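New to this. Please check this fold:
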Amino acid sequence: NGMLADVIAPALSAYAELKRDPALAGAVRDLYCSLPPSQDNSIVRLIDETCLNGRLKRPRSAAEQQGMLHLYKRHCSPHCFDCSVCELHRSFSG
């Protein structure tokens, strides 16, 4: 599952974009959303505890888990988890 979610599906998605093939892009998106998330991930757990106050429990799909990892790279990591300057954290808190 890890190889499919981390390498093959993203490569197929990029290929579909390059070829401008919406049918393939849709099929890859559906596949990616149907894949289960990988084993417990410490970054996902940290985001859940820090930003979501423990409401997430566990990502439902590999796509949801990858989305959370993207949010971490974009918002949490650059601010070293200083939530007072993080627009993502403020959006969940407000």
User: Anything to note?
Assistant: The chain has a mean pLDDT of 82. The two ends are 36 Å apart (CA to CA). The chain is about 65% helix and 0% strand. Helices lie at 2-18, 22-34, 42-51, 62-76, 87-93.
